[in-house]
Amino acid sequence: MRIAVIKENECEAPDNCNYICAEVCPVVRRGIKETVYPRENGKAAITEGLCIACGICVKRCPFDAIRVINLPDEMTKELTFQYGLNSFRIFNIATPMRGKIVGLIGRNGIGKTTNINLISGEIKPNFGNYSAILQPREIIKEFRGKDIQPYLTDLYSGSLKVVKKPQDFELTGKVRDLVKKNRFGLVPSQLMERDAKTLSGGESQLIRIAVSMDEVADVYIFDEPMNYLDIVHRLLIAKEIRKSLGEKTVVVVEHDLIMLDYLTDFIQILYGSDANYGIVSHMMPSRNGINNYISGYLPTENVRFRNWAIKVKKSGTAEGKKPLVRWPAFEVDIGEFHLKTEAGVLREGEIIGIIGENGIGKTTFMQALAGTLTTNLGLLDLGIKIAYKPQMVQRSDCIVSDAFAAVKADYSTDTDIMSIISKLDVNKILNKNIKNLSGGELQKIAIIATLMKDAEVYLFDEPSANLDIEDRLEIMSIITAIINSKKKCAIIIDHDLMFLDSVCTNSILFGGKSGITGITDRIISTSSAINDFLKRVDVTMRRDSESGRPRINLAGSRLDVEQKMQNKFFAD
Ligand code: ADP
Ligand code: MG
Asked: Residue 237, exposed/middle/buried by CB under 10 A (0-12, 13-18, 19+)?
């Protein structure tokens, strides 16, 4: 089967191109005008049955708005949903399992949220017939013999109550009025009297999850619950969902692989082409599912969906390398909060991680090093050039390429930078306005702009936020390559332990009490820092024998008990 996708937001017909797509189409030229034609709103449309997939319109569209993709014919019968004419399609469907936690994993724009909305009942399968509204019994009939059928039968008959934590949401009102029950005590009492509008991203996320869990329902759905949460809350939420909802039907979308692995019993992988089509894989036990995702290959389907395997490598050591920058022990007071640090040194080629919960002074520490915040020693001047990506990236009203040029006028002639831009698939948004970018795109732009700066030390505050797994890994390897080859150094604050584990040789663990004191430990190896952190939260972790990725042990399992007895919280 052939699918043609036209991105309506990108297509500027007829105003800015006069349908060049139709003009160049060889089938239209032969007189079959319905092959490429204007739709009601003036944008272009393609009749898939007439298109010969010559690819000329795809190349010639000035806005890069067209994709034409050939798929095996047998896919036709798997088509479950299509938004509209020449738009994104879903093949197969995410399938909740009673009494189990099912995880969905895949790139941004591959259809995870669309699947969540199909199983919550907000949208209904249309099998490609996007202008029809099918009756529940017709839909159920289409899925005869499939595992989803009994679920949809119950859903449409109204006998399932579904609660969903959406990916994006806005909270309004007083926290106490939103969180009426706090059944699981997830919301700390000091937040109760606050106005929801004043909360941080992490605090809002926590409250939205607590509100969902408080509701009594049959099915609980969480779309990217770990976004914005710090590492302590990620573990807390993961434990609580497992413990309290383990007997319910639960579906989770998540990019933090350690948390996804811990949370779920089964995994479905979504693959295909982002923004064009997404295929939902067979159901796999979580461990296999995540290992298959890492390797980029689905054995049951015999499908290679990525031509490289994700590397979960242990980084080498920077021990013995030349010191590049040193900082003294210093202290910072901001309002009620007090930060006390140890002195430190960064070596050539070294990337140091920072681990700790929110409100414990990680960003303050970075700002002090960057010389933008007064310490007890005054403004620090480390005598070295520093580039800094803040946690919150400003959404300016400016074209991406102009923003890049403002950082480095000749960036487009720098082959290293252009290679990063292409690896992160940022070419296609160079002409977009920053204010219209998605969270993930904005994050990538900010990271690239930071790497463009001429500096010795690069500071990144939460670079993985809003990125999917592939982008996280791509960024990891880009940062590592630059820091190593150019003999620079970097410090990274992040809450994704797998990200820190594979990119940072050494780390600094922050202690203290959120909002009151922050105390930094010495620089130690990342696995020791993770070990000490896990000990604090009473969780144990081991490495997967096949993929080498870190996995959390189930509380009370044989490994958990053994590792605690040996005081090995991270069996590395
Ligand atoms: P994910 O959650 O995996 O990031 P989504 O399910 O949100 O992916 O979106 C998948 C694709 O569906 C997007 O790339 C977008 O192009 C398309 N899409 C989402 N909502 C709509 C809509 N209402 N109309 C048309 N296309 C949509
Ligand atoms: Mg989504």
From this structure: buried
Q: Is 177 helix (H, G, I), strand (E, B) or coil?
A: helix
Task: Answer whether 44's CB lies under 8 Å from 37's CB.
Answer: yes
Which pair of tokens denotes residue 469?
Answer: 């797994």
H or E segment to which residue 339 belongs: strand 337-340
Q: Separation of 116 CA from ligand 2 center, angstroms? A: 9
Measured between alpha carbons, how far is 388 from 382 in angstroms, rounded to an integer? 14
Give dist(CA 40, CA 47) in Å, integer: 14
pTM of the model: 0.91
- The pair of structure tokens assigned to 34 is 């319905």
pLDDT in tens, 59-84: 999 999 999 999 999 999 999 999 99
- Residues 466-521 have pLDDT tens digits of 899 889 888 988 998 889 888 899 999 999 999 899 889 899 999 999 889 999 98
Query: What average pLDDT does the structure give for the chain?
Result: 93
Q: Do 76-304 and 323-525 come out as alike in CATH topology?
A: yes
- CATH 3.30.2290.10 is held by the domain 323-525: no
CATH top-level class for 2-70?
alpha beta
**258 CA distance to ligand 1 middle (Å):** 25
Q: Are 45 and 38 in contact (CB under 8 A)?
A: yes
Angle at the Cα of 170 from the Cα atoms of 389 and 102, rounded to 5 degrees: 85
Strands 337-340 vs 517-525: parallel, antiparallel or unpaired: parallel
CA contacts within 13 A on the Cβ side of 390: 8
Ligand 1: nearest atom to the Cα of 110: 3
Burial class of residue 116 (count of CB atoms within 10 Å of its CB; 0-12, 13-18, 19+): buried
Q: Which two tokens stand for residue 159?
A: 């006998």
* Distance from the alpha carbon of residue 563 to the mean position of ligand 1, in angstroms: 43
Extract the tokens encoding 493. 């604050």
Measure the CA–CA gap between 540 and 258, rounded to whole angstroms.
12
Q: Topology of domain 76-304, per CATH? A: Rossmann fold (3.40.50)
